[in-house]
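User: I'll paste a sequence; please echo it back and then give the predicted structure.

Assistant: Echoing your sequence first, then the prediction.
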Amino acid sequence: MEELENASLFQLLSLSLGNAALIALGVVPENGAGPSSSQPVRLDAAKYNIEMLEMLEKKTKGNLTGDETLVLEGLLFDLRMKYVEASKNA
C-alpha cells in the first residue's frame, strides 16, 4: 500500500511541476484567469520547473516504476517541445 501511495505522490509532484511550467509558458491559465485571458510567457519560470523535473529524473533513475518513468519522460518531452516553441515566439 505504501508503495502505491509513494507512486501516486511522485506522479502528483511531477504533474504539479509540469503544470507550473505550462502556466509559465502561457499554455494553461493561472487560477482565476479565463481561458481567453492573455498571459505573459515567463520562459525563466518554465525553464526552472523543467530543470526541477530533469533533476528528479536523474536522482530517481533506476528507482521508479514503469508508470512513473513513462509519466516523467512523457511530461519532460512535452514540456521541452512547448518550451522550444515558446522560445521561438518570444
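The radius of gyration is 14 Å. The longest helix spans residues 66-89.
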